[in-house]
Amino acid sequence: MNILTLGHEVLRQKAKEVSRIDGQTAHLVKEMLETMRLGKGIGLAATQVGILERIFVVHIADDIPRVFINPVLKGVSPETSVYEEGCLSIPGIYADVTRPEMISIEAWDEKGIPFHLDADGLLARVIQHELDHLNGVLFIDHLSELKRKRIIRAWEQKFKA
């Protein structure tokens, strides 16, 4: 699968709910996990590979690969933390982003089994990052306008080089 990069219109579109979780969904998830691994990422949303469905995958070291289909954020902590984020769709660019430290989320896995997850730390951050992708939001949208413009300019120079 090809990962779309900054400037592609699909990255700014909102994904649609998955109406049926079946073998095709499981196959898509498998391909997404492999694409994420090959890209040396820890999260990948379907929108990043041009599929406007509410699916993302996450795999953080020392944890199991996780699949989120039709995820719904149920709550966030008032406490926030700052962490340097990057994105497979904006390769080579990193910036400090402030996000809630803890989250509560509900979703379905690739077998169609619903689950609830409370997460903190890096897992909570990656889930929020990938959920943003499903809503057409990139991590740079959490930055000031000045920082965002600098990052876009730097990425364009690097990409064109």
What is the structure about, briefly put?
The protein is an alpha+beta fold and 161 residues long. The chain has helices at 23-38, 121-134, 145-160, and strands at residues 43-45, 55-58, 66-76, 80-85, 95-100, 102-108, 114-120. It contains 3 helices and 7 strands, in the order H-E-E-E-E-E-E-E-H-H.
Description:
Helices cover 29% and strands 27% of the residues. The protein has 161 residues and is α+β, with helices and mostly antiparallel strands. It has one domain: Peptide Deformylase (Alpha-Beta Complex), CATH 3.90.45.10. A five-stranded antiparallel beta sheet has the order 1-2-3-6-7, sandwiched between helices. The radius of gyration is 15 Å and the shape is globular. The mean pLDDT is 95.
Main CATH class: Alpha Beta
The major sheet is characterized as: 5 strands, antiparallel
Query: What general form does the structure show?
Result: globular
Helix content: 25-40%
How do the SSEs run, as a string of H and E? HEEEEEEEHH
Mean pLDDT: 95
CATH superfamily: Peptide deformylase
CATH topology title: Peptide Deformylase
Counting structural domains, the number is 1
Number of strands: 7
Provide the β-strand percentage band: 25-35%
Alpha plus pi helix count: 3
The computed structural class is alpha+beta
Q: Looking across the biggest beta sheet, what order are the strands in?
A: 1-2-3-6-7
Distance between the termini: 24 Å
CATH architecture: Alpha-Beta Complex
Radius of gyration: 15 Å
Taking pLDDT < 50 over at least 5 consecutive residues as the criterion, the unreliable ranges are none
